[in-house]
């Protein structure tokens, strides 16, 4: 670690990762946005899932001002976020075989839908099985993960595969194994994770691509507006009414 302030070093690391994601993932971002637009245009539904801290990026594109109203959170009880007690239970549930299939079989996901799965490591049973099972149900899968984990860690799913192996499109977050950007001689562990920053940016780039792709086809994107600006709530009510059969977070 150099003599510059740690905050500056973190910003520099995050900016470098964002630039890499922008430049190296441009084709995949375009493909993912087009896939979501195709799904919307074909009357399909959109879902997003992430376990633990990966759920933060998933939640950021659900019921979001400026985002697509049709994106629904696919929740796995106890695995989405760190609000479950103890928080370590969520990490344990990610390694449980069969859980993803049970959740999907009880969900509204169907053929023709699109599912975004966020998992930094992509090595645990939950995201791998979810991708596999979603595709057997006829859904398209977009995976957001760090591809580096596939070459530097061992898989935990019985198939010996990773999330990236079961996706129609993969977005590589470029995050190093361990998700910590800074080190210091006086601190025994690396620190300052950047995966949330990069993953959220990747997904918002995908959502922007999807909205503009729909508009280019003459389809008004079903976007939400902030409820804190005048007219925002009325706007959203109209969107909810028009697309209510494809929005599940209001039920």
TrEMBL record:
- Source domain of life: Bacteria
* Residues in SIS domain copies: 36-221
- What is the protein name given in its UniProt record? UPF0309 protein AQJ67_29950
State the species of origin: Streptomyces caeruleatus
The family database entries (InterPro entries) matched by this protein are listed as: RpiR-like_SIS, SIS_dom, SIS_dom_sf, SIS_GmhA/DiaA_subfam, UPF0309
Q: Which family does it belong to?
A: Belongs to the UPF0309 family.
Q: Which PANTHER family match?
A: PHOSPHOHEPTOSE ISOMERASE (PTHR30390:SF7), SEDOHEPTULOSE 7-PHOSPHATE ISOMERASE / DNAA INITIATOR-ASSOCIATING FACTOR FOR REPLICATION INITIATION (PTHR30390)
Which SUPFAM superfamilies does the record associate with it? SIS domain
A Pfam family found in this protein is: SIS_2
GO MF annotation, one: carbohydrate derivative binding
One GO process term, biological-process aspect: carbohydrate derivative metabolic process
């Amino acid at each position: 670690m150099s003599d510059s302030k740690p905050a500056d070093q973190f910003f520099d690391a995050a900016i470098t990762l964002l630039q890499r994601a922008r430049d190296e993932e441009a084709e995949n971002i375009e493909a993912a946005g087009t896939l979501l637009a195709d799904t919307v245009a074909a009357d399909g539904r959109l879902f997003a899932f992430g376990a633990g801290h990966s759920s933060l990026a998933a939640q950021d594109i659900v019921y979001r001002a400026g985002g697509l109203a049709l994106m629904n959170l696919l929740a796995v009880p106890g695995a989405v976020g760190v609000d479950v007690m103890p928080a370590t239970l969520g990490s344990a549930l990610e390694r449980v075989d069969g859980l993803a299939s049970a959740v999907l079989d009880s969900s509204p996901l169907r053929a023709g839908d699109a599912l975004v799965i966020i998992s930094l490591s992509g090595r645990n049973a939950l995201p791998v099985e979810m991708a596999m099972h979603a595709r057997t149900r006829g859904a398209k899968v977009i995976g957001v993960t760090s591809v580096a984990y596939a070459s530097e860690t061992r898989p935990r799913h019985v198939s010996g595969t990773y999330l990236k192996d079961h996706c129609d499109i993969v977005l590589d977050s470029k995050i190093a194994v361990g998700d910590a950007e800074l080190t210091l001689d006086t601190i025994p562990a690396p620190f300052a994770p950047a995966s949330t920053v990069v993953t959220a940016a990747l997904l918002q780039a995908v959502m922007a691509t999807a909205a503009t792709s729909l508009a280019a086809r003459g389809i008004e994107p079903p976007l939400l507006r902030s409820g804190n600006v005048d007219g925002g709530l009325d706007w959203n009510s109209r969107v909810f009414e028009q697309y209510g059969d494809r929005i599940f977070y209001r039920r």
